[in-house]
Please model this.
Amino acid sequence: MPTINVTTIRFANLLNHAEISFFRGAMIETASMHDASLFHNHTDEGLRYDYPLIQYKILQGRVALVGVGQGANELLWLRPYLSRDLHIGYKNIPFEILSIENAESQIGISRRTMRYRLINWMPLNQKNDRLFHATHDERERTILLEGILTNNIIAFFHSFDYSPSQQIHCHIEQRGPIQKVMFKDVPMRTTDIEFHTNALLPLNIGIGKGSSLGHGIVESI
Model:
């Protein structure tokens, strides 16, 4: 079963979700002394459309960085420069590292059923949003969301050159209310879900749309 390197850096600082974009900007500025392309997800040719290898999020109320694959190594390189004052909006805030975790995480098809929670998941693009609201049948809505979730997981696997040899199964056990949010000045909808699956996923990574900015965070149950 393939593995990928994941680095999680948690800070002692408390930020809200609306401040993640400011935190991202501060990290890009900090990384500018090096190669910051993975931090802002752009290359010399333009936007990098692959899975975001450096992600900014809130974990248990505290701001965090998650690096995946090459991004994990980039965060370890940046570590000595992170305990410093950062500009968050109009505030200058001293940041303090709380913990650093670096580990190889397996991905693929699990022999046993895995249960996860997905936080701030953003499943509905314009087409899916119409389909979701075209029915008031909760089972039909759940089936739609399960298909989107399965596709999100497959897309994540493909980003690391892994093609599952078996079909991925996802079954949503619980779903929270749909929340309206603004994402890059566009109105979107998010939700939290609990699900079980035969897919093995690293914890704290993001899947689906907005995964670089604190959406679709994978937690264990």
About this structure: The longest strand covers residues 186-200.
